[in-house]
Design goal:
Blueprint lengths: L2 E8 L4 E6 L6 E4 L16 E8 L4 E8 L3 H8 L23 H5 L61 H12 L3 E5 L3 E10 L3 E6 L2 E6 L3 E6 L3 H7 L1 E2 L1 H4 L17 H10 L3 E5 L3 E10 L3 E6 L4 E5 L3 E6 L1
Antiparallel strand pairs: 1-2, 1-4, 2-3, 4-5, 6-7, 6-10, 7-8, 8-9, 10-15, 11-13, 12-13, 12-16, 13-14, 14-15
Length: about 325
């Protein structure tokens, strides 16, 4: 059976379109073709498999089955709403945004300018209204779609709408949805192994060695996936002069170092290597994968990847 992703879906009207993995031709989808009646919240970006028939106006999907990950199946059994991996919008009457893996890792992708795709039959594709909810109690943990998704380290910043998600937001949302094993580098040279459970305006809720804890974002210097752990740790050098200053975490975004954003963007586009020194002396060298207002993702010289929080930067130099 062919596979694809939901390109557009209107909850009220009960139809949408599938973007196929193996063809450029979109496939019309009606809610009656979905095989899982218990699955009521089909979303833009959700992976599906299906059969195809030729309709009067084009291809029509039949026997549509939503492809859920083990985590998503567990959420469904628990009565929770399921969001697709890479979903970057908030649910509503019609649709949100889906940011696929290629777009999320592409340095030319701008989440602030992304709009839901318009299907070729020119139906209404108005975006869902943005919004967010307050943080729920621990026994009613919100999904990633319910969070005030912002990487701003201060409480004063307003929660962004679905069109204001930065690369850093999308990166953390993706790790929440994948339940990715990661390491978070904290001050005093602590390397905390953890899975991200939630993110709010100013903190991350992590599960580390079976224990849940909330970490203030300004306490995090950088993070990386478990699969990159050995290579990231091997790539770190120490600037003894900076380390000797025994600098403490910044408590406000306003105190973050003044980074030449234009120079950083040029370095990203040109593939120019940069060097980053953090407040406790760690130094990294590599090329920029993406840049957000609060993070920089580097591909290090040994091929490993690390996300550096700007508030932890002491100095950044472009070669």
């Amino acid at each position: 059976m062919p596979t694809g992703r939901i390109k557009y879906y209107n909850f009220d009207k009960g139809f949408g379109f599938i973007e196929q993995d193996s063809s450029d031709a979109d496939v019309f989808l009606h809610s009656s073709a979905i095989k899982q009646p218990e699955y009521e919240e089909l979303r833009v970006g959700q992976r599906v498999k299906y059969s195809i028939i030729e309709g009067e106006k084009g291809l029509v999907a039949q026997n549509v089955e939503v492809l859920l990950t083990p985590t998503e199946r567990r959420w469904l059994r628990q009565g929770k709403a399921v969001i697709p991996r890479g979903y970057a919008g908030f649910p509503g009457q019609g649709q949100g945004q889906f940011i696929n893996d290629k777009a999320m890792t592409s340095p030319d992708y701008d989440a602030n300018e992304s709009k839901p795709s318009r299907n070729r039959r020119d139906h209404d594709t108005s975006a869902a209204p943005s919004g967010s909810t307050t943080k729920q109690p621990r026994n009613q943990r919100p999904l990633a779609r319910d969070l005030k998704v912002s990487t701003a380290p201060t409480q004063e910043r307003q929660a962004p709408s679905s069109k204001q998600l930065s690369f850093g937001d999308l990166y953390i949302l993706k790790q929440i949805n994948f339940e990715t094993s990661m390491f978070f580098a904290l001050y005093n040279h602590v390397q905390l192994p953890a899975i991200v459970l939630e993110m709010t305006l100013s903190s991350l809720t992590l599960s580390s060695n079976g224990r849940e804890q909330s970490i203030v974002k300004t306490d995090v210097k950088y993070c990386y996936k478990d699969i990159d752990a050995e290579r990231v740790q091997a790539a770190v050098d120490i600037d003894a002069t900076v380390k000797a200053q025994q600098l403490t975490p910044l408590t406000s975004d306003a105190q973050a170092p003044d980074i030449d954003t234009e120079a950083v963007q040029r370095a990203r586009k040109n593939g120019t290597s940069i060097g980053v020194t953090l407040r406790e002396g760690e130094t990294f060298r590599g090329v920029i994968d993406w840049v957000s207002p609060y993070e920089i993702k580097l591909i290090l010289e040994n091929g490993s990847k690390v996300v550096i929080f700007r508030h932890a930067v002491y100095n950044l130099a472009v070669d």
